[in-house]
Amino acid sequence: MDAALLKQLQTAPRRGAAGSAPSPAPLEHPSNAPFKERYEKAYVVASKRKRWAAQEHAEEVSENDRIQDPMAARIELGQTRDDIGTGTWTGGLVLARLLEALCDEPLPGISGRLEDLCTGVDVEPGPSTGPVSPAVAAKPFITDAARALPVVELGSGTGVGGLGAALFAGFLDVTLTDRPGPVLENLERNIERNVAKFRERGLYTCDRIAAAALDWLDVESIPPCGVLLGAELVYEQDSVEPLLSVVDAFLLGARRGAGGAASPVFIFANSTCGRPGYRFFMKRVLEDPRYEVHAVEAGDVQRMASPAFTEGIDVLVIRARNAA
């Protein structure tokens, strides 16, 4: 994250606090060995390569073009080079792996759980920004209660983030969205093949997972949800205003509370390198007094989601500031 933006975020007063208190030194985090062991379970797909599209017209790719990542090995992702939305980007992989990790761990920087945030409960500094009691620090961010919240992913592309939410984080109602056409068709195939694979192994627990077309300029078409997900959504500056129209409607406006959550939450992962639109998005959100923004520190993202793929990835949790 840009140093100036990060400083602004870290020094902004937190709701419920009397002014800005100096941030104590971060707590030392436990070893990530238990998290790594999860990838050794029997249901891990044997191949360590991402599955490319099986259809006959898919372009042949070299070994160097494949993303070597355990999450990509467990989710079959049909993709081609025909469209930017039919490829898998690093932010989506990071988001999927982080959601899985948060089933066992708290979210660094936030002491509350996901359902606390979504019901408007105030939050206090968490493990990354201040001392909290061991009982609070040990709470996983995603619990059974949170999994009942309907989830919508924006700009799903190949669907790795939304599939991770449904298949590994255990959310029960997940809608993956993108624009109509080849991207949405590929997304539907990816959902179908992964649901079938998980059903076959007796690992499918989701009540509903579906793909849907979504026009960011038509906010009334946003499916009801309590949790909004997104990864790699802004490249150029001209994509920021349409995205903000969706975020505004979901967190503050016409679609707020449509999914049964009094204080909906937007969890967003995006690359910072070569993304001029992302800096503009961050500037707009941080300067808007209606938003409360929590950034997961880079070291925590690396520890929870894999050091190999998280450099230059920001993970943000955004909600309405006066949600309670």
From TrEMBL:
InterPro entries: Methyltransf_16 (IPR019410), SAM-dependent_MTases_sf (IPR029063). Residues 1-34 are annotated as: Disordered. It comes from the Eukaryota. Coiled coil: none annotated. Residues 12-22 have a biased composition (Low complexity). Pfam families: Methyltransf_16 (PF10294). This is Calmodulin-lysine N-methyltransferase. It comes from Phaeomonas parva.
